[in-house]
Amino acid sequence: MILNDRKPVVIMAVFAAAGLLLGFLAEPSGVPSVNLCQFKLATGLPCPGCGLTRATILMAHGDFTRAWMYNPFILAIFPAMVVLAIYPFIMAQLPERVISGLDWLFVRGSILLFGLMVIYNCYRWYVIFTAGGFGYL
Fold first, then answer.
1. CA 98 – CA 119 distance, rounded (Å)
2. What b/e readout covers 27-43, taking b as 16+ CB neighbours within 10 angstroms?
3. Crossing angle of helices 52-60 and 6-25, rounded to 10°
4. How far apart are CA 104 and CA 18, in angstroms?
5. What stretch of H or E contains 14?
6. What backbone torsions phi and psi does residue 133 show, to the nearest 5 degrees?
7. CA distances from 108 to 18, 46, 105, 113, 115 (A)
8. 87: left (phi over 0), alpha (psi -120 to 50) or beta
9. Could you say which residues of the chain have pLDDT below 70?
């Protein structure tokens, strides 16, 4: 069980909290210049996570529309980051059966989200190739 074991939960919480903190500290006006995707730098094509860094910064500052435009999955990922960041603090208060249910939801939800992101990315690639170039994103 992923969420029942304290160490992975704390590691996920630290990464989620760090991502949220960096999102709040980053200046949204500099968002268009941020490009950390090594896949896109190497190939010119977006990966399924392209735009999530910029979208996280924009979500942290309340700009939901622009965040959606960078990557629509931020509307699921940002709240999940908030929950993961606070989860270790509430974990001790939850009964075992609730943690078990959350574990089931977390694993299947992650698989579903990743699958949807890959499908969406295939669509983005289709648009890029049918639009005639790499200038799309």
1. 31
2. ebeebeeeeebeebeee
3. 70
4. 25
5. helix 6-25
6. 170, 180
7. 24, 25, 5, 8, 11
8. alpha
9. 1-5, 34, 132-137
* Residue where the block lists tokens 């949204």: 28
Residue corresponding to tokens 């939801």: 105
**Tokens describing residue 43:** 């190939």
Is the separation of the CB atoms in 54 and 70 below 8 Å? yes
| DSSP secondary structure string for all residues of the chain | -TTTSHHHHHHHHHHHHHHHHHHHHS-GGGGGG----HHHHHHSS--TTTTHHHHHHHHHTT-HHHHHHH-TTHHHHHHHHHHHHHHHHHHTTS-HHHHHHHHHHHHHHHHHHHHHHHHHHHHHHHHHHHHTSS---
What percentage of the chain has pLDDT greater than the value 70? 91
